[in-house]
Amino acid sequence: MFGFPLFIFALSQSVNRIVGDENATFTADEIDQRSAKDGDYAGCFPQGCLHFDYVVNISESHTLDICTATFHPSETPGNTSFDTVREKYNTSSNGSFEGTVHVDYQGVLGTVCADDWDLDDAHVVCHTLGYPRASAYYTNAFFGEGIGEIILDNVNCTGSESNIAFCQHNGYLSHNCEHRQDAGVTCDGIVPVRLVDGASPNEGRVEVNYQGTWGTICDDSWDINDATVVCRMLGYPGVSYALVRFGETTGDIFLDDVECEGSETHIAQCTHGGYGIHNCDHSRDVGIICSGAAKLKVRLVDGPDESQGRIELFYFGSWGTVCHYSWTSLDSEVVCRMLGFVGAIAYSTSSSYGRGTGEVLLRWPRCSGKESSLLECDPYYDLDDLRVRLVGGKSDKEGRVEILYLGTWGTVCDDNWDLSDANVVCRMLGYERAENFSCCAAFGPGPGPIVLDEVECEGTEANIGHCRRSDYEAHDCDHSEDVGVLCIGHGNCSLNTTQNETEQEQQQQR
């Protein structure tokens, strides 16, 4: 059964959410009447406010005064928007956001029964809250029993829905559960961030990725503490300049009134006005210059313990994977040393720990085994071996074509764009071929530079950089002409490389 969008208020236990008018005042008597405990409110609904694991009943007038969260049941899927509340997240030490899931259905607050609850369902909850994905899901009230009604049961999401209400479920308030079966999630606390339009990778306009779309930050309350957090997310040890202008862009402004203490590891942990809520225009977009050299972080994911798992790298603000082509035991030695282990016992190149998400950040590092970091290894690169991605589509197989050039993602102009060009892009991403191609910014205009124009591929090239084309960033277009593609098949880690290229590289190594 499908339904209207639900407002997911909060995850109890490890999360606080400050709500409403920050200028609102209450007498001591009013506070005593509303709360028997100290702390911040976790969210508001028509009959009161949610505070961790109990409800505070307040008058209707006060609810309207202090609560800015609203629910829009008339809106259709794909056009869902919520007025969110002012947020402050208290997260666990690894930057995660976790707890018991609470939803508001037409003024009724409650939980979700964990029957059939899985990682796809948890992904949808985390996406709704502005996080890129879920790292874990929980059943049987792992974070404690929730409050109110049990709103949903037998939830079955594909993972791509924009709201849990659009997933299959039993129907609202239809269940055979008790609160001891409440569902919980842990969201990956990393909100991807990037610097755009700077002269070097350590500077540029700050953009954050919210629900798959890049947007900017308004400069209200922005200071050195906020810039420090962003630079830390990107792997830089310090800040040279906290507020610099790198030009205006188009698109969304996602954050305003950001107030970090400076010790946070992710900007999502800082106080801000709520995603998409602002009173600015792009003339006030925040830009920064970070100091020092970026560091590469590594982690092992989805293994049975901390000593084994899928290798993921954190570089320039996002986690990504390593392509298995030509990976050796020497490369594994370096990764294990980065993680504090003595050495590597074994390695696998067959996705034994599942497929990752995000960019494929590294292929064929060519380590000697003595390096202290993968950054010290000697990867093979061809200057015309461009990296591509698809943005703005409904699935991984479609979207606006973007090219990484000189550290910045940009677009391709549609002059001469045809199916042969699209086939090359799709094969770079590991798909069989292109089913269709588009012009005229069918997937929306891109925010960055226009990298390529007049592309004319034969269709057999291994990389779009090998096709006939204009010089880089030489064009007579604007973003209303950005190209897109729709691919067929299953993507894999051959992102931006091919088997033939890899064989050539192996021969060169020998």
From TrEMBL:
* InterPro entries the UniProt entry points to: SRCR, SRCR-like_dom_sf
Q: What keywords are annotated for this sequence in UniProt?
A: Disulfide bond, Glycoprotein, Signal
The residue range of the signal peptide is: 1-20
One GO cellular-component annotation of the UniProt record comes to: membrane
Where the record annotates domain SRCR, the positions are: 85-188, 193-291, 298-377, 388-488
Give the Pfam families listed for this entry. SRCR
Gene3D superfamilies assigned to the protein according to its UniProt record, in alphabetical order: SRCR-like domain
Disulphide bonds annotated for this chain are: 113-177, 126-187, 157-167, 260-270, 367-377, 413-477, 426-487, 457-467
Full protein name: SRCR domain-containing protein
Taxonomy-wise, where does this protein's organism fall, top ranks first? Eukaryota, Metazoa, Echinodermata, Eleutherozoa, Echinozoa
